[in-house]
Amino acid sequence: MSLVVRNVEFEDVNGLAALMHNYIVNFYRKAWPGDRVVRQLIQTLLEKQEGIQFVAIKDGEMVGFATLYFTYSTMKAERITVMNDLYVMEPYRDTQVESQLFLACQRYTHDLGYARMSWITAKDNTRAQCFFDKMGGVQGEWVNYSIG
């Protein structure tokens, strides 16, 4: 049984778009933004200027992905990464697939000299919270809001 976690490549676009559909529509039960804009986002991230994506391939099948966006922290006055997505298909949760995707994001953040990696998860996603606790994450003191 082989597991490969690597940067997204051009030939991954179709498989990644399908995984993102599952993540957005089936897991989070949100409206699909549309094939064109999702593929455009993947293409933008392939340039590695605004962010980067990783995929997990288990026995030849794409089973997970993670997305890091690059930004700044005013409090640190340094660049940071934001892990916006960490998604693995149901049978691969709480396995090395999930751990290795997370560690790929963490390594990238460290190796490229970012000050830190941050992320959020849904308040009712207790399974993910347990995973992040296990991986050494610490819940922050800030309350997240959004609008729009």
UniProtKB/TrEMBL annotation:
The keyword Nuclease does not apply. PANTHER family: DIAMINE N-ACETYLTRANSFERASE (PTHR10545), GH14572P-RELATED (PTHR10545:SF29). Pfam families: Acetyltransf_1 (PF00583). This is GNAT family N-acetyltransferase. Keywords: Acyltransferase, Transferase. Residues 3-148 form the N-acetyltransferase domain. The keyword Transferase applies. It comes from the Bacteria.
